[in-house]
Amino acid sequence: MRKxxxxxxxxxxxxxxxxxxxxxxxxxxxxxxxxxxxxxxDEGKAGANAGFVVGDDGVLVIDTFEDPGAAKxxxxxxxxxxPLPIRFVVNTHYHLxxxxxxxxxxxxxASILAQRNVRDWMRTENLKWWGNTxxxxxxxxxxxxxxxxxxxxxxxxxxxxxxxxxxxxxxxxTGGDSIVYIRDAGVLFCGDLFxxxxxxxxxxxxxxxxxxxxxxxxxxxxAKFVPGxxxxxxxxxxxxxxxxxxxxxGDIGQAQRSGKTGDALVAAVLPELQSKYGSWxxxxxxAKPDIQQTAEELSGTKRVPAAxx
Length: 309
Ligand SMILES: [Zn+2]
Fold this sequence. Notes:
By secondary structure, this protein is of the alpha/beta class. The chain has one domain: Metallo-beta-lactamase, Chain A (4-Layer Sandwich), CATH 3.60.15. Helices cover 40% and strands 19% of the residues. The chain is built from ten helices and twelve strands. It has helices spanning 2-19, 68-81, 96-99, 102-107, 116-121, 136-142, 207-218, 235-257, 262-277, 283-299; strands spanning 26-32, 35-40, 50-54, 59-62, 86-90, 111-115, 150-152, 155-160, 163-169, 178-182, 187-189, 224-226. The strands form two sheets. Strands 1-2-3-4-5-6-7 form a seven-stranded mixed β-sheet. The chain binds zinc ion. Zinc ion is lined by residues 93, 95, 173, 192, 201, 228.
């Protein structure tokens, strides 16, 4: 099962490298009030979305991509918009595609902030995507990732001059996810707690708590939701993503109650998911492992990284 997931991820990573020369890595979207989303292309080497907020006295960056080259491009784009110092980076979670450019922004003077489990997991849990076949250079890279300088348990408020940025930790995708709310712009950066029209990676997920977290996120009253993957979204698109998790859990529960396990369970659930969500990105890579991992979660056998309580 893990092999399938790793193969899927590797295909994404390798195709990124092949296509990097011809495909833009991300596109910048101006969300107003100095808030920008950097939407990664599925083919480019950004590997995920990021963003930044320009305040009166500095810049806060949200996530740093899967590739330091893409992070440098983002830094260059910020420099075209403002000469203000890059003061903070918030990592929404520990996954490599959101933290591998941390060193680029640290070198530019930023302090890196994250939920405390992110610091515990960044250099260890990110090795698992390759199984036993991680190239030595990648292993060295993961084991020297720039860790957060400042950690919190539940959240932190960050001030850019008079402007308040609200960072809050909510469980779901991993045991250390944060969202970043820019209230005066009506923008919620969701990290990988929201995948817009993309099937999520559930390797570290607890979908039961995730569904509730999505209700909390919808309660913030934001108008614009920046997902970890996919295009800028609306509340309706967050609800559609929540429905994916609920359908997954419901269909698997039904199959389990009729005694199905393993391949028979996957075969029972996959067509239903395909009919509703087959057009979403990453369906081929993640739908089957999502079923297997959520079946483990529902039967109480799923292993997720141990979190500080
Ligand atoms: Zn992730």
